Amino acid sequence: MSHFCPKFKCPNRVVVGKPQDPDVINIVCPRCEHLLYSSEARTKKFKSRQRIYVMALLVMVLGLTAYIKRDVFEANPRISTNEVTLQNKVETHGARSTIRSFFQHLNNRNYAEAYKLTDHAKWNNVESFSDYVKYWRNLKIMRMSSKSYYSRYKADSIIHVVYSGVQDETGVNEVRSFDYHMRQYGNDWRLVRIFFAMDPETDILKNSEVPKSSDQAVRSFLSFLKMKKFKKAYRYTNNPSWGNESRFISQNGFGCISDVTVYNIRHVKSIDAQTDVVYASYYATDPCNESKEHQLYFYVSRKLDYWRIVKAVKEFDEEV
After folding, report:
1. Domain at 231, CATH number
2. What is the pLDDT of residues 105-123, one digit of tens each?
3. Looking at the whole model, is its pTM more than 0.85?
4. Which residue, among 198, 256, 201, has the nearest Cα to 225 in the 3D structure?
5. Where are the alpha helices (H) located in the chain, listed in sequence order?
6. Which residue, of 62, 85, 202, 203, is most buried by count of CB atoms within 10 Å of its CB?
């Protein structure tokens, strides 16, 4: 048993021991007027347990802190440290505040002020902007969260916004969800694009997945086909013969491929400063069409925003 005296100046304020302890010492406290039992062995055990309790509490606090910080990664759990730093900078400098102000101006039908917070390519002037948003009202932000993926609109931050409100002539108040692409201009932030909500794990490329070379584009294309992430694989293409995204990911396109084994990928030649030819041989398991080995020459171009496959042929004269 242990004794704790509430009197601060008591010389025997904390005493640990039991009458049956082999090394017990009986003490009569002159201030408490109690018979106390003090055991050195039991005191050591008591202090050892206290240290364990303190360590367990510390682990719980650290675990809780890590769990709370995990919210930073809700859009992408494998986000890099640099991207987290950028997102923290974004929040500090007001990207979210700009979105709130944008919604507030729209609710007040102050379209000129709302327009000043934008740099959207399709909104050439305040008149075209006002016509586009004329039905927007009763907008209420429910939640916002940061995302990290490649923005073709050169955004410095992407904020996923869930909100309710009216946006068309029906007057129906609905919950909506879009990704707001924000760009920083000095200390100010502007809206450069409102886009459908994208999942960087399945729908679109992360910044780290943007190819830096033509052969890397082909390698990543085949890798995502192997992982059955067909929307991501489509992001490495701009090939008219493969059709649009719906056609590409369908079972008649590439959407039935269950496995890919790559044998060889090599850079063949550069056609010009923006177009390369890359050879790839691989086996594609495709239950819906035909499982077979492919030996293709991919024309890969970076005339758009990054390296993409624009054509695939079976024959190419490497000597020319």
Report:
1. 3.10.450.100
2. 999 999 999 999 999 988 9
3. no
4. 256
5. 40-69, 81-92, 95-107, 111-115, 126-132, 214-226, 230-234, 245-249
6. 203
Structure tokens at 53: 């309790």
Distance from the Cα of residue 210 to its chain's centroid: 15
Output b/e per residue, 218-254; b: 16+ Cβ within 10 A. bbbbbbbbbebbbbbbbbbbebeebeeeeebbeeebb
What is the SS3 assignment for 225? helix
**Among the listed residues 294, 283, 278, the one whose alpha carbon sits nearest the alpha carbon of residue 211:** 278
- Checking if the pLDDT of 154 tops 50, the result is yes
Nearest C-alpha neighbor of 218 from the set 159, 265, 282, 172 = 265
164-197 as b/e, with b when 16 or more CB fall inside 10 Å? ebebeeeeeeeeeebbbbbbbeeeebbbbbebee
Cα-only R_g, the chain:
32
Same domain, 292 and 250: yes
Cα 239 to Cα 300: distance, rounded to the nearest angstrom: 10
Total domain count, the chain: 3
Residue 272 lies in a domain: yes
Long-range Cβ contacts of 118-125 (<8 Å, 24+ apart): 118/190, 118/191, 118/192, 119/183, 119/185, 119/190, 119/191, 119/192, 120/191, 120/192, 120/193, 120/194, 121/192, 121/193
